[in-house]
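Summary of Year 1 activities. Much of the first year was spent building the evaluation harness for sequence design. The harness presents a backbone, in tokenized form, and records the residue chosen at every position. We chose the following record to illustrate the format because it has been used consistently in internal testing since the harness was completed.
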């Protein structure tokens, strides 16, 4: 689907929700696209199928590092494992960014840290700006608490496009209870955020990604030296819990999530004391594991 422009008429019913004003692309560019900064171009489109699909196409055509594509509505948004991601127009932040870490000498074996980096950056930025404790569920989910219950309100998807990596993020901001796609979903509004103004939230997330990416790149993508590995572990709600890992091929593992290793894998302590790293799969939180004093 070709992205459509943002110049709709004010009377268009899909855009008339006064609690969900449109983003101002010009203001965002003035605040984020600066000489010497990471963000080089920024576009807001009214609707598209998937910002990741569009930006992957642009990456293959030579789009520069630091390109940002934001959609007010995604009609075919994708999550991990080809799951769909849908939400009402302007109810969240749906965007993708284009990075070319190889240009800074980061070896490809460390590029797998990029979606985790985006998660750390987003969680920190949203905790500060929205005033809501935001945590990470390995590998690519963002969680908040709604009435004391953990709910997923955001997800991250990374895709390789030649020498580029496109990272997409979907964040439920003002989604109301009756608009939730599933009962286990959440939003910043439902978590009693101090603001659901998408402009400062988006600026905070993009600035935080730029800071973390710059530091990670400065250390050649080393997750330890850059502080990324420790930061992810500190904000990861999966660690210290008994979990079920649903692995490719229909396999399962149950164990305590004890660490994030240098490759970004989740390390499970299974029966018999065996520590097993998990590189891909769905993680189900079962319960917290009591610690010995």
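For this record, the design step produced the sequence shown next.
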């Amino acid at each position: 689907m070709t992205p459509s422009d943002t110049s709709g008429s004010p009377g268009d019913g899909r855009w008339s929700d006064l609690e969900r004003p449109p983003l101002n692309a010009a203001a965002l560019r003035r605040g984020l696209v600066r000489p010497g900064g990471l963000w080089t171009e920024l576009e807001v489109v009214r609707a598209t199928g998937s910002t990741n699909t569009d930006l992957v196409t642009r990456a293959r055509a030579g789009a520069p590092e630091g390109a940002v594509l934001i959609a007010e509505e995604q009609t075919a948004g994708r999550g991990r494992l080809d799951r769909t991601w849908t939400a009402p127009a302007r109810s969240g932040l749906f965007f993708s960014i284009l990075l070319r870490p190889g240009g800074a000498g980061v070896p490809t074996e460390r590029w797998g840290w990029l979606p985790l980096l985006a998660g750390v950056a987003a969680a920190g930025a949203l905790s500060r700006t929205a005033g809501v404790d935001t945590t990470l569920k390995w590998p690519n989910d963002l969680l908040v608490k709604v009435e004391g219950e953990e709910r997923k309100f955001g997800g991250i998807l990374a895709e390789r496009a030649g020498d580029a990596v496109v990272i997409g993020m979907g964040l439920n901001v003002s989604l109301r209870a009756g608009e939730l796609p599933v009962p286990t979903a959440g939003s910043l509004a439902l978590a009693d955020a101090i603001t659901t103004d998408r402009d400062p939230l988006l600026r905070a997330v993009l600035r935080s990604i730029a800071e973390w990416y710059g530091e990670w790149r400065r250390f050649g993508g080393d997750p330890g030296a850059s502080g990324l590995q420790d930061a992810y572990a500190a904000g990861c709600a999966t660690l210290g819990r008994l979990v079920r890992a649903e692995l490719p091929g229909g396999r399962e593992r149950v164990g305590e999530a004890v660490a994030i290793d240098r490759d970004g894998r989740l390390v499970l302590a299974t029966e018999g004391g065996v520590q097993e790293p998990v590189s891909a799969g769905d993680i189900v939180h079962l319960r917290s594991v009591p610690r010995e004093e």
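The first helix runs from residue 25 to 32. Quantitative recovery figures across the full test set are reported in Table 2.
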